[in-house]
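Handout, section 4.2: multi-component inputs.
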Amino acid sequence: MSLLEVKDLKVRVEEREILHGLTLTVNPGEVHVIMGPNGSGKSTLSHVIAGKPGYEVTDGQILFRGEDLLEMEPDERAAKGVFLAFQYPVEIPGVTTWNFLHTALNAQRKARGQSQLTSPEFLKKVREVAKSLNIPQDMLKRGVNVGFSGGEKKRNEILQMALFEPAVCILDEMDSGLDIDALRIAADGVNALRSPERAIVVITHYQRLLNYIIPDFVHVMSKGRVVKSGGKDLALELEASGYAQFEVAA
Amino acid sequence: MNLVLAKNETGRALSDSFAIARDRLPGAGKVAEARSAAFEAYERAGLPHRRIEDWKYTDLRALMREVLPLAPAPDAAALKRAAAAVKLQAIKGSRRLVLVDGVFVPKLSDVVGLEKGLTIRTLRDVLETGDAALQAELFTPDNANPMVALNSAMTTDGVVIEIADGLVLKQPLQIIHVASGPAPAAMFTRSLLRLGRDAGVTLVESYIAADGAKIYQAHDSLIIAIGDNSRLDHVRFVEDSREAFNISSAVVALGAHAHFNTFSMTSGAAVSRYQATITFAGEHSRVETNGVNLLNGRQHADTTLFMDHAVPRCASREVFRAVADDRAHSVFQGRIVVRPDAQKTAAKMMTRALLLSDDAEADNKPELEIFADDLTCGHGATTGALDESLLFYLRARGLSEKEAQALLIQAFVGEAIESIVNDDLRELAIAATQRWLEARS
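Output:
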């Protein structure tokens, strides 16, 4: 059984259809990259998978390990192992990163019928994870993403990925707002999370990310559909000739 | 027409109850005269209503309609119920001062082994046998405010605390107001805290209901004088029964180089009003006033603050957070006056309201009256719902809708709670917030 199956998905926002029948299959251990110009529907796809309100699915389905993902609340999806790294992680003043991570991890564990982690247990775990990703401890004491640089926000997303150990990670425009050093650090974090059980879907419209994350599959999206899929060489082809050729095809 | 009738009926009923109660009210001579003058002032005005600007959001004629008869002195059964309630609310390590149905109860209080320089007497005692100056001080609050006048007329008991020069008390003092029983009644209390020079203390006020106490009115007032170079940390928790009324007034005066840090949290009572007047009487003093309302159902809570910068070089900061769910109504009125001489004043007021339902309401009324020209003064007020993008972020990380809301509400009130200096008291405020959040989920 595939980990994530998107079948002929049609999605509207208000009166406008954004996705016009999108199909995508992701298996454990695979790294997929979805590329495409602005407005092709990449972020919409990631939002619909995570369960963001405001999108109307008019046709098609999304299955996660064979279960209907669209029937689940966003928190149920998270507990099942779906993780969306946000393009623009929000700032939450007054909630420390530490408290947020502890509450979220325990909420997921509770939903899965696992025991709650006490503060010392959680502290030990989060310290290990932060250390492995070179994330300074003091970041945990600050308000969630408050005053964080673009790079720190993305690192905080990757820290959460590492902590929650999801089955599928969707990274929405993970390279936006990052300089080359921050991008390398973020990509290293993602690479460290590659495993035979976990799938990673990276959404980007720049080829440069692929210098750091080597995908198994590359998909090109245009006008709400996947118009071409291939191996990592497809990205090089795109780099050379741009998206224009696919827009015609769509 | 109806209003006039209502006023007359209310007035008459209360006249009778004042006449009946008179014998039970402590103090003769000047004290009795002050009571009569206060009662006449109240009778002329009646319960405040919405056409009086200061009460426009809290129309007591509509909300309260009448003043209930004076509560009888608590009997043994009442004291037993009160004792059980006090046990739950008493702050560990504090010196408890317990008023049950408006009467000081030594048996439930902790008044033995007072530190040298600390005097605690009951209001009744002071009004009956105290010196004239102290008695006069107890009647300084202005009868222009009808609810203050009513309190002056009817007050039966309270605590009078004096802290001598140089005494800094480590142990917090906790005044606990308990309503004991099922019979609808009104309690009228008045307390005074006088801090000498170079002194310090933490004062906690708790308003609670014993098991079975539902419909009652707590009318309270507090007079505070903070001497030069002294510091008062003050925290109040209004956790009255959901059918109760709590009308409380505070009159605070600060000397020079004094510091007043105050926090008020209202989660109980059907209708509450906290009106505080804070006057800077000496230079280089500062005040932080913080408040949180946590309301649901049809609760109505009004905080009305008057910050009077009468002298130069003082600083005040007001931070107020209101959370209103269901059909609750939160009111914040903040008036800051900077008088002509009060140069180099720094005054700031920030109020924010969070509405959790379409039917909830929050009114913010800032008023700045500035007569000096060399100062920094500012205010801001916002009202809104929970941010959908923050909620989704939290839900995408596994928090349920209620959990996500709870975390954001805690953060919202956090800024006001953070201002509480005493760690234990801050923890209490956080715990009270959590209890409120758990009760709504």
